[in-house]
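Attaching the record inline, Q. Sequence:
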Amino acid sequence: MALDAAGYQHDDALLARFAAGDQSAARELTSRHAPRAMALARRMLRDEAEAEDVTQDAMLRVWKMAPDWRPGEAKLSTWIHRVTFNLSTDRLRRRRSAPLEAAPEPVDDSPGALAGLEAADRATALRKAIEALPERQKRAVELRHFDELSNPEIAEALEVSVEAVESLLARGRRALARSLSPHRRRLGLD
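Structure, as predicted:
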């Protein structure tokens, strides 16, 4: 049984076990990868129900391709990230072409007026600052801090070296700090 540095069974071995009918392998893979897929879908779609649907669809695709998975050709986490990203992008495209009447009613689950305004102000400022980053820095920051991918996983997703990821993250963080610095007191970041 192949184990990684933390003592967990490798995804390739878990996929092989699932393909052979072991449901516990499916549960382990789901608990390992679904939270990251959900975080990515939630961030992209900004809709909890749609994010859940995308996550389920991505995991279903894992189960369908398990018998055909070729160990060592790709990392499962990167493959799931790409599938989730593509499924979310497809949904965003469909939204743009859907009539306004088909849009779901928004759900108000805000904690309170003042807290909601402050949180929204911080989120808006951060979102604008992230959106202003160059595309590669933006993707690296999002993958690291929202999807919680490791630097090697980000390098694989962006098809760059780990050193390039470290550089992108450092430059992105410095740019965010500069961008948000004038607003620290107003946003409660002190």
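The mean pLDDT is 83. Residues 19 and 67 are 5 Å apart (CA to CA).

More tomorrow.
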